[in-house]
């Protein structure tokens, strides 16, 4: 099983600000945890981050027919990106939306998700465990 894990803007800064919301782990820490979890299921992961919407769209398009599942934390693009929504819609593999925090308990502008309509599962508010839950869900 090949899993693509995509991370959106500013997540490369994790662990440096707002630990009360996002925790103390860096994205590199989360990548290692994901690799360890994936190994339990014999899965391989390709873990990426970009601050650029078009790059995320390119990566989603490249995933067409080459991966068995996508886990995506689109960060702020979750709430704005029709382009990422449309790209994800092209895929036939399962899509899992993840968030470290629970956007629904935060500012109103975070309540709308353009990923939600195309996702089979959503894990949010669990910190890094949202990613682990997503890997488990895809492995199951
Ligand atoms: O909770 C999540 O995972 C979010 O996707 C994180 C996004 C936010 O826009 C979404 O509403 C919810 C923000 C990522 C910002 O990353 C930071 C990294 C370091 C320090 C502070 C924020």
How would you describe this structure to a colleague?
This protein is an alpha/beta fold and 140 residues long. The protein has one domain: Rossmann fold, CATH 3.40.50. 34% of the residues lie in helices and 19% in strands. It has a 5-stranded parallel sheet, covered by helices on one side. Helix 4 links the parallel strand 3 and strand 4. The longest helix has 14 residues. 31% of the residues are buried. The model has no long low-confidence stretch (mean pLDDT 97). The structure holds ligand CA2.
The CATH topology comes to Rossmann fold
Please report the first level of CATH classification, the CATH class: Alpha Beta
Give the strand tally. 5
Small molecules in complex: ligand CA2
Order of helices and strands: EHHEHEHEEH
Compute the number of structural domains: 1
For the termini, the CA-CA separation is 11 Å
Main sheet: which strands, in order across? 2-1-3-4-5
Helix content: 25-40%
Strand proportion = 15-25%
The name of the CATH superfamily reads Dehydroquinase, class II
Largest sheet: 5 strands, parallel
Report the mean per-residue pLDDT as an integer: 97
Radius of gyration: 14 Å
Q: Which residues form runs of ≥5 with pLDDT under 50?
A: none
Number of helices in the DSSP assignment? 5
Global structural class: alpha/beta
Instruction: Categorize the overall geometry.
Output: globular
Do you know the CATH architecture?
A: 3-Layer(aba) Sandwich
């Amino acid at each position: 099983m090949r899993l693509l894990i995509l991370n959106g803007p500013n997540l490369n800064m994790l662990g440096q600000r707002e630990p009360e919301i996002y925790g103390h782990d860096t994205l590199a820490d989360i990548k290692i945890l994901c690799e360890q979890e994936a190994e339990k299921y014999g899965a391989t992961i390709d873990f990426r981050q970009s601050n650029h919407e078009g790059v995320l769209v390119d990566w989603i398009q490249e995933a067409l027919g080459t991966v068995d599942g996508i886990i995506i934390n689109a960060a702020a693009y979750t709430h704005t990106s029709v382009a990422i929504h449309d790209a994800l819609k092209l895929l036939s593999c399962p899509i899992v939306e993840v968030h470290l925090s629970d956007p629904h308990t935060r500012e109103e502008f975070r309540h709308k998700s353009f990923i939600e309509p195309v996702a089979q599962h959503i894990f949010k508010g669990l910190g890094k465990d949202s990613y682990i839950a997503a890997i488990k869900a895809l492995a199951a």
